[in-house]
Amino acid sequence: MARITAGVGCSHVPAIGVAMDQGITGQPYWEPCFAGFEASREWMKKAKPDVIFLVYNDHCTAFDASCIPTFALGCAPEFNPADEGWGPRPVPVVRNHQKLASHIAQSLILDEFDITIMNEMEVDHGLTVPLSVMFGEHGPEDTWPALVIPLAVNVVQFPPPTGNRCFNLGKAIRRAVESFDEDLNVVIFGTGGMSHQLQYKRAGLINKDWDQSFLDRLTSDPVGLSQMPHVEYLREAGSEGVEMVMWHVMRGALDEDVVEVHRHYHVPASNTAVGHIILENKTG
User: How many separate domains does the chain show?
Assistant: First the structure.
């Protein structure tokens, strides 16, 4: 059967993608940020996932204010990088494991999660930046080393889903994956965050202590952490800090007891804290 073996938490700061695309990752400003992903790329080479289930949020490219689904599962054969105003990122087209994606869609809906099924969708930096930092530079003529199933979560328009709902969705995704009759190694990504605010009086907010505590509890107290109310994300991590609810989907899909194999935290990248963690199931 298919199995989820590990989870990756990763910020998806758009400026990180720009730095990679412009070839400036070795500059003094960016070098410490990217140095923290060197071990991650080596880990990915050893992990060799067949499929990445990637939880992210769309930034008004596939969706706009006219229609914002809470959970949207990509079931198309492939997903082109979106033009976010300055042209699409020069990265590969994202190719889906369509049979597994369709199986997950059916399983989730029958498991009473109301999933929007996307048979056509472009993907923005929320999805492509995590792939770039974990796999390294790949041009548009290349192929990503793994197939990717995208799940877009609404954290743009309130109310977003609760951490608890996301955590339980992760459990349902695991049940769906494990009921798929094909030997596949699946790694699940939770992306977004960490603490940041992009507007008004608290623009530029970064809360290092809160960020580190979140990473600690993600490993050791995932159930308790999933109960955090929206107002705490807003107060402690800024208006965009609520993106962190997406990391609960990743954590819910893993074992209760996990091994933290790598962590990276860097301030700043653009006006945001960069957070990253790799968790492995003890059961393999």
Answer: 1
Report helix, strand or coil for 74: strand
Read off the pLDDT of each residue in 10-20 and give the average, rounded to a whole number: 96
Is 196 an active-site residue?
A: yes
d(CA 211, CA 108): 31
In the set 125, 264, 266, 276, the catalytic residue is: 125
Peptide bond connecting 69 to the previous residue in cis, omega within 30 degrees of 0: no
The Cα–Cα gap between 27 and 19 comes to 9
Q: Is 276 a catalytic residue?
A: no
- From 12, 97, 196, 248, active-site residue: 196
Domain interval for residue 148: 3-281
d(CA 202, CA 195): 11
Which CATH number do you get for residue 96?
3.40.830.10
Query: What DSSP element (H or E) covers 55?
Result: strand 51-56
How many Cβ atoms sit within 10 Å of the Cβ of residue 224?
9
Q: What is the DSSP letter of 141?
A: T
Structure tokens at 122: 């472009």
Per-residue pLDDT tens for 150-205? Answer: 999 999 999 999 999 999 999 999 999 999 999 999 999 999 999 999 889 998 99
CA-CA distance, 282 to 138, in Å (whole number)? 31
